[in-house]
Amino acid sequence: MSQSRKTLEPHNAIILSIREDYSSVEELKQLLSTLQVQVMEMFYQKRSEPDSRYYFGLGKIEKLKELIALTNADLVVVDDEITPLQVKNLEKELGVTVKDRTQIIIDIFADHATTEEGKLQVELASLQYQLPRLVGQGRELSRLGGGIGTRGPGEQELEEKRRRIRERIRIIKQKLMQIEKNRTQQRKMRLQSDLPMVSVVGYTNAGKSSLIKALSDDDILVADKLFSTLAPVIRRVKTPNGRVVLFKDTVGFIKNVPHTLIKAFESTLEEILYSNLIVVVVDISDENFNEKLRSSLAALEKLGANHLPRLLVFNKIDRVSPHVLKELSAAYPESIFISALYKTGFQELLKRVCDEIKKNECEDLFAVKLRDLPLLMKEKEKITITEQVYQEDMVVLRVRGRPGILRRLKQIAGGMNS
């Protein structure tokens, strides 16, 4: 069973929330904007717990009906994950489509998935979201048909649907396992190349893709939309000392990520664990950047990446005043301030990247015959020659690099083990 996603058709929406979490609602508004849905109003009811039947209380539902008529809204989006019963009851009372935050995020991922792996991951997340929401619906349909004490036609139909979804989930997982095997092989080859890997992570729309595009002068999709990057992208970046570093783009983090999406993209995110350095990018122009930074760091901790060295990079400094920059520089003295748009601060960023990578390198002396020198120089993008002394038909080189590349160089010329 191949799943095709229905396009989100409504264009005017009202957001519902029972928590006074302004940043979460604003983020949902941005998510809907990414799907070209216009938010007409944001509707609150302060509650400690959602109503089990309607999410909101019935009194608020009546006011919501009036607001829908007034704004001509054709979509209601709940800033939460709601139950099938709540969806059914709300749609019956309001007469419009009702979706929750999880469904909106899955819709965005489905729109932006371009690779086979990405499409499979999104479909898996969608099916895993649907499956538990089918439980009990068959009995309800059977009761409507008059069945008592037996498995009615509605329940049989739902059981068949559950069976098809489980089978499709099994097939998708098999395909993803094969893709993971291929990725493992590619990772092995990449590690053998001895080029350092820098993973660029951060909240969605922080400017990660813009940064890598500017550093590498390569063509990468850059869009002012949430989750414009789903598939990992790797680009070669030449540093001022002539070395080459691999920079990897990653899927953006977000608050309250649906569990189904976390599980579906788990293998992709785990690639971060094979990095030599993590660059955490933060949109400094975002008034909620502190909260989004905390969410990003929490995601890295949950992933198990706390042991990896990291650099904190504040992006979009062109959008803030010098006064703000001065205050943040004092608050985050070890951070780097850049503008990916204008390539400001790149020299400092690349210097700090090189300094971090250098911490895991060592030096060795090599006595190389002049005729063999070109063989060694083929690896020049992976090493730094700190000293060279010519002696008749030989040259003695002091070379700094990662242990793997130094071992391979010994096959070309004898190491003198300084």
What are the SSEs and their pairings?
Blueprint: E1 12-17, H1 22-34, E2 38-44, H2 58-71, E3 75-78, H3 84-94, E4 97-100, H4 101-112, H5 116-130, H6 137-144, H7 153-192, E5 197-202, H8 208-216, E6 233-238, E7 244-249, H9 259-264, H10 266-269, E8 277-283, H11 289-303, E9 310-315, H12 322-331, E10 336-337, H13 346-358, E11 362-369, H14 373-377, E12 383-391, E13 394-401, H15 403-409, E14 414-415
Parallel strand pairs: 1-2, 1-3, 3-4, 5-7, 5-8, 8-9, 9-10
Antiparallel strand pairs: 6-7, 11-13, 11-14, 12-13
Helix pairs in contact: 1-4, 4-5, 5-7, 6-7
Radius of gyration: 27 Å
Low-confidence runs (pLDDT<50, min 5 residues)? 1-8, 138-150, 221-228
What percentage of amino acids are in beta strands? Answer: 15-25%
> In DSSP terms, counting alpha (H) and pi (I) runs of 4 or more, how many helices?
15
Shape: elongated
Main beta-sheet strand count, sense and barrel state? 6 strands, mixed
Helicity range of the residues? 40-55%
Overall average residue pLDDT: 84
